[in-house]
Specification:
- The protein is built from five helices and 15 strands.
- By secondary structure, it is of the alpha+beta class.
- The protein has one domain: Sandwich (Jelly Rolls).
- Strands 1, 3, 4, 6, 11, 12, 13 and 15 form an eight-stranded antiparallel beta sheet that branches.
- Strand 3 and strand 4 form a beta hairpin.
- The chain is globular and about 50 Å long.
- It binds calcium ion (2 copies).
- The site of one calcium ion (CA) has 6 residues, from loops.
Length: 261
């Protein structure tokens, strides 16, 4: 009996799995920003992660990636290439810093397409993707702008002219140090630098498209624009590095970086 059940079930399961795989490969036709990158852009870099890392060090992901936090906790695998996927594990306690993995990018207008998954291995998983220009000295560690995909919301933030501008950061730090509320003018100013929308994270694979056009930053998930924001820092002329961060586990695949301008 069991065998005959299996006979019926297996083709069904195979068909179901196949249809899921086909769907995952398809680009949603309404993904206008991906179409914009592909039609107007030059591909600067792509990675499908179909290899193994060579160790736990700074450059061991290969293909020009650097794990800036690798050497802080060399005994912990913070970046694992496995099954053709970049599996990120941020251990802030051990490394003394959230993970930061980056690769040369370099555009004024353009963006990134990738697939990501919050695999559900840890609580509060997030996907942080953005840009850094370390040659910019007026900003802490060159932090320009980030998209934060959190469990219940997505935030786009202009760090360059907001919280990571050294003057803004110093003023904000005084209040944080004293555990005081930010003064209304500073709070209102920082609010203009970011946009937050509700979102419900799950543990599936998703297509992400992140683009910059002039002073606008736009983020799409599965072909749908979920959040856009305009802020002067987004127009920074050199998005020099593509940077990933995470609060715990994050899986990434099929990264493509495009320069339109
Ligand atoms: Ca591996
Ligand atoms: Ca892959």
């Amino acid at each position: 009996m069991i065998l005959s059940h299996r006979k019926h079930l297996l083709p069904l399961l195979a068909a179901w799995a196949l249809s899921g795989a086909v769907q995952a490969q398809q680009v949603a036709p309404q993904d206008k920003d991906r179409a914009w990158l592909e039609s107007k852009g030059t591909l600067l870099f792509e990675d499908d992660f179909e290899r193994e890392e060579t160790g736990n060090g700074l450059k061991d992901i290969g293909k020009g990636w650097e794990s800036a936090t690798a050497d802080r906790a060399p005994h912990i695998k913070q970046a694992d290439l496995d099954q053709g996927i970049l599996k990120i594990y941020s251990n802030e306690k051990a490394a003394g810093h959230g993970i930061h993995i980056h690769h040369d990018a370099g555009f004024t207008d353009g963006g990134t397409t990738l697939r990501f998954r919050l695999p559900g291995l840890n609580k509060g998983e997030s996907c942080i993707v953005g840009h850094v220009d370390r040659e910019l000295k007026s900003v802490h560690a060159g932090h320009l702008c980030y998209a934060y995909l959190n469990p219940t919301n997505i935030m786009l933030r202009d760090s360059k002219t907001g919280i990571h501008d050294l003057k803004v950061q110093a003023r904000r730090a005084e209040f944080l140090k004293r555990k005081e509320k930010l003064p209304p003018d500073l709070d209102a100013f920082l609010q203009t630098k970011q946009k937050v929308v509700s979102w419900k994270a799950d543990n599936e694979w998703h297509e992400l498209t992140l683009v910059f056009e002039g002073d606008e930053m736009r983020l799409s998930v599965d072909g749908k624009v979920l959040v856009t924001h305009r802020s002067e820092g987004f127009a920074h002329p050199m998005k020099r590095w593509l940077s990933f961060g995470a609060t715990s586990t994050l899986w990434i695949d099929d990264v493509k970086v495009w320069k339109v301008k």
